[in-house]
Amino acid sequence: MTPKQIELIRASWDKVLPISTTAAELFYGKLFELDPELRPLFKGDLTEQGRKLMTMLGTVVRSLDNLDAIVPVAQASGARHAGYGVTDEMYDTVAEALLWTLAQGLGNDFTDELKEAWVAAYIILSDVMKEAAKEAA
After folding, report:
1. Which of 53, 80, 100, 108 makes a 20 to 30 Å CA pair with 118?
2. What is the CATH number of the domain that holds 122?
3. Is the distance from CB of 3 to CB of 120 less than 8 angstroms?
């Protein structure tokens, strides 16, 4: 990732934080709309799950210039997700729901350049998680 992409993501995240509860609701609504079969994977309270999602995303955003710090966390998460039955294709659905949510929350501020930055970050993180899932399986 470039320093400019990191800067763009952090600036956009500052705009998402005040609406993080709504963003989480939008995300899960879109996720289950895209693939209703994912719903049973989420057994707990979705509000709490949304808080965890936003916390995790915040950690990733803060760590973009030091990815080595979050690789072990991403690997552990990927291994856990494998145990839940998460497949590589599901990561694509999550990406689509995340990008849609960001577009809804940021409106005109969600430019093509910003979208590319988020895609780059997501690919890095999801690749680490998918690799860890394969190793765990």
Report:
1. 80
2. 1.10.490.10
3. no
28-63 pLDDT tens trace:
999 999 999 999 998 889 999 999 999 999 999 999
For residue 57, the enclosing domain spans 3-39+46-136
Count of structural domains within the chain: 1
Q: Is the dihedral of CA 62, 60, 135, 137 positive or negative?
A: positive
DSSP codes, 45-94 = -HHHHHHHHHHHHHHHHHTTT-GGGTHHHHHHHHHHHHHHT--HHHHHHH
Q: pLDDT (tens digit, 9 = 90+) per residue, 56-115?
A: 999 999 999 998 999 998 999 999 888 888 889 999 999 999 999 999 999 999 999 999
Distance separating alpha carbons of residues 21 and 128, to the nearest angstrom: 27
What pTM, to 2 d.p., does this model score?
0.92
- Residue 118 burial (C-beta neighbours within 10 Å; 0-12, 13-18, 19+): buried
